[in-house]
Amino acid sequence: MAIALRAVFIVLGAGVVVQALVVVQARPQDLVSGFYGMVDIVRRSMPPDFSVLPDAARPALETIDIGLFGTVMGVILAVPLSVLAAANVTPSRWLYYLSRAIIGFTRAVPDLVWALLFVTAVGLGPFPGGLALAVHSVGMLGRLFAETIENMDMAPIDALSLTGASRLQVFTHGVVPSVLPALAGIGLYRLDENIRSSLVLGFVGAGGIGFQLLTAMNLFQYRQVSLLLIVVFIIVFAAERLSAICRERLA
Amino acid sequence: MSDAGLAEPAPEQRLPDERPPDEKRPGVRLSIRGISLRYPNGVQALSGVDLDVRAGELLIVLGGNGCGKTTLLRCITRALAPTTGQVWLGATDLTSLDGRQLRRARQVLAMIGQHAALVRRRSVIANVACGALARHKTIWTKLGGLPPSELPGALGCLGQVGLADLAGRRAGNLSGGQAQRVAIARALLQHPLVLLADEPVASLDPEAANEIMRLLRRLAHDQGLAVLCVLHQVELAFAYADRVVGMRNGRVVFDRQRAEVAMDDVQRLYTARAA
Questions:
Q1: Is residue A70 part of a domain?
Q2: Cβ–Cβ of B117/A159 closer than 8 Å?
Q3: How does DSSP classify residue B123?
Q4: What are chain B's domains?
Q5: Please, which pLDDT band fits residue B26 given cuts at 50, 70 and 90?
Q6: For B40, which DSSP code?
Q7: Is A45 contained in some domain?
Q8: Closest CA in chain A for residue B74
Q9: At A191, which CATH number?
Q10: In terms of Cα–Cα distance, which of B67, B73, B72 is closest to B248?
Q11: How many residue pairs from chains A and B have C-beta atoms closer than 8 A?
Q12: Average pLDDT per 10 consecutive residues for chain A, totaling 251 residues
């Protein structure tokens, strides 16, 4: 019976994968026939045009700062929300459901859509980009923070409660030191992701190096595109390494 | 509603004082009267438990799994609300308290469990100092600061358990026995009238277990604490208890001085359950 059930699940799983291939219109033969087109673009991208490097410096810094702004604001907003959204420490069932709803909504809307909304509201530039990342981060961080709080060891919390300490004292002396390293690690990982996301937000006018990249692509300036991609790679790699080092030290 | 400040409490809210000793029950710190607990699913966990815990005495409760030992402790601390009965801590009935009044009463009712339940990422001295938070409900402590006036006392409590040299160490780096001693130090900083211990040596090796039991006995005999300890290890009960209480099926089966307890009495607690 168990074997038959397992076979059914395998067949169903394979069916799901096949239908995905059909819907995506996966055509490996197109990849083969288009190979020479890709080679042509790569050829036209070489060598990278280093003359635009000085012009790329400020947008690159802007990209990092948009990611940093979005992460910091996201953390500041997500922390209190996550406390309300953690079943083991929430002060009220209504606040629990409300905070979960806010987290779910901000997570569900992609950061690109938030960027479009904020560009419409406040205009072009890095500010709408930062706002978009902040709002989206509230959802992503809020959920992870809440799960971290829910999964923590409650024994020290219960022990502190039994000493007669107030609820706020139990929170600041028990909950906060227990989860802070994990929350900091999640925040650092989010910073890494936000910097990568901010690269794309420039495509909708929300600042950073993305706008420069889009312009170069639209003008077929492939050598500039390759230089900008090198800059992007350096930014992403550096952010990832720095985040990993900080998280290792926190652990 | 704020807990900030230390305004003079109303008479009914003052911390429990020790009852005046009477001839029948001299020095009784904790008095349990007719405690019963019936769970919503109908299981009767405790039935009419009567028990006195006296100052300067180490009372050990024995009994098989599910006999109600831990449930009794949870009813005393009001982690569980008993169905009927009263728990008197001095002149205060704990079963009638809630919220802030219950938190105030808990200040002098210290408890340690199977595991030390320390905040692992904080230092040993910070964990101990948390035992005094209830006496310092100030903005500073509510924001996570330790009460500075309690740090010397915290160090003193660590000295009493022989761990003053580990004050600066992270709690997560302690052995099981060391962590349990830190938990006792935290309990001592509460300046308790009663110390409850729920299987405090369950996860310790024999040497560490004996250390903890010696410490509990010393706290009872030398400092006059009333100590109520739940144990599984019968040999430890016979080695350290002043008084032994046997429980079975949620009831007290016997309550005698250690010298009056026979091994047969204890074995009946466990074998009768299996029969």
A1: yes
A2: yes
A3: B
A4: 26-108+193-275 (3.40.50.300), 116-191 (no CATH)
A5: low
A6: T
A7: no
A8: A162
A9: 1.10.3720.10
A10: B67
A11: 77
A12: 92 95 89 86 90 90 93 95 93 94 95 92 91 95 95 93 91 93 92 90 85 89 91 89 85 70
Confidence at residue A14, expressed as pLDDT on a 0 to 100 scale: 96
Q: Is B110 on the interface with A (CB under 8 A)?
A: yes
The Cα A107–Cα A114 span in angstroms is 11
* Residues recorded for chain A: 251
- Establish if A201 belongs to a structural domain: yes
What six digits make up the tokens of B78? 């009001």
Chain A touched by B103 (CB under 8 Å): yes
Find the domain containing A110 and state its range: 50-250
Instruction: Kindly report, residue by residue over B161-186, the tens digit of the pLDDT.
Output: 999 999 999 999 999 999 999 999 99
Whether this prediction's pTM lies above 0.80 is answered by no
Answer yes or no: is the ipTM higher than 0.85.
Answer: no
Q: What is the tally of structural domains in chain A?
A: 1
The Cα A184–Cα A79 span in angstroms is 11
Choose from B142, B191, B203 for mutation: most chain A CBs within 10 A: B142
Q: Which residues of B touch A177 (CB under 8 A)?
A: 119, 121-122, 144
Residue A238 CB: number of other CB atoms within 10 A?
13
Contact A162 B106 (CB under 8 A): yes
Residue A23 within any structural domain of the chain: no
- Show which residues on chain A lie within 8 Å of chain B, measured between beta carbons: 155-156, 158-160, 162-166, 168-169, 172-174, 176-178, 180-181
CB distance B16 to B105 below 8 Å: yes
